[in-house]
Structure formats: C-alpha cells, structure tokens
C-alpha cells in the first residue's frame, strides 16, 4: 500500500470496485467497449490489480498479467475524469513499476493509443524489433450484432 495525502494505492483485490471498473471499461474505454461484467470479474481474479482510492472511493485502476519471473503485461489503465491532471497516473505507473514482486523481469509490455509520453517517463520504449512480434487479435470482441450494423 502506498499513501499520498488523501490518496491510497492498494493491490488488495477485495477493495476493487468491480462495478466502477466494469462501467468504465465497458462504456468509456476505447479498448474494452461493451466488455461483459463476467469477463471483467475473471480478469480481476486472474491479475495483480492496482486501485487508487480517494477517501475510500476508487478513482483509478490498472492491472498486471504476469508470471512474476520474466514478463508482465500492463493493461486496463485509467483514471476517472474528475481526477485527471493531478499526477495520479504518474504516481500509479511509478508504484506499479517499483512493486517489489515485479522487480527483475526480463520484459514489460503494454498497448496504448495515446499515453506514450507517460510511459516513456518510466523507461518504456517502442518495441525494439517489431518484426519479431506477432499477435492474434479479435477486433471489437464485445460488440453485439446491433453494434456492428
């Protein structure tokens, strides 16, 4: 747990506001539009979660998928709009990358459409050899039939 003023970062899964996380991901994010609640719950259960709380209300979130030995994927990073511009995302990324069980990893990875500048401040770089990377992607996997018309 890390504390700054009225804000706390915790990895305690029992504190995560699943309803808020689901609401944000399913309606406001560009990467998980329409994601079902059951998938959000499963992703939280199978990840290392970081929640930022202000007066016991969760206002930011990120999760790590990792083997705790060689690799970590950072995903689902967001700060609620009322709390943006206060340095919370910087503090959150700093705390995640300094988290003791995540030290010594060979590789960290993430995908972002618009936050490259934030991550570069914490040592992230563009993929060194993108020709070596492959992916299997389902574009818009949570869209309903009516969303695709």
Walk me through this protein's architecture.
By secondary structure, the protein is α+β, with helices and mostly antiparallel strands. It has a single domain (2-148), classed as Gcn5-related N-acetyltransferase (GNAT) (Aminopeptidase). It has 4 helices and 6 strands; from the N terminus they run E-E-H-H-E-E-E-H-E-H. It has helices at residues 18-27, 37-45, 88-98, 116-120, and strands at 2-4, 7-10, 48-54, 57-66, 71-79, 107-110. A hairpin with a 4-residue loop joins strand 4 and strand 5. Helix 1 (18-27) crosses helix 2 (37-45). The radius of gyration is 16 Å and the shape is globular. It starts with a strand and ends in a 29-residue tail after the last helix. The model has no long low-confidence stretch (mean pLDDT 91).
């Amino acid at each position: 747990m890390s504390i700054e003023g009225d804000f706390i970062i915790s990895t305690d899964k029992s504190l995560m506001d699943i309803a808020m996380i689901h609401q944000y991901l399913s309606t406001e994010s560009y990467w998980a539009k329409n994601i079902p609640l059951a998938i959000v719950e499963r992703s939280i259960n199978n990840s290392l979660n970081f929640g930022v709380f202000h007066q016991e209300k969760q206002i930011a979130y990120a999760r790590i998928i990792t083997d705790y030995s060689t690799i970590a994927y950072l995903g689902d990073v967001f700060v609620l709009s009322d709390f943006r511009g206060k340095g919370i995302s910087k503090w959150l990324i700093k705390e995640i990358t300094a988290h003791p069980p995540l030290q010594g990893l060979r590789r960290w990875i993430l995908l972002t459409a618009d936050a490259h500048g934030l991550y570069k401040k914490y040592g992230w770089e563009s993929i060194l050899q993108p020709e070596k990377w492959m992916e299997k992607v389902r574009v818009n996997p949570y869209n309903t039939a009516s969303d695709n018309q």
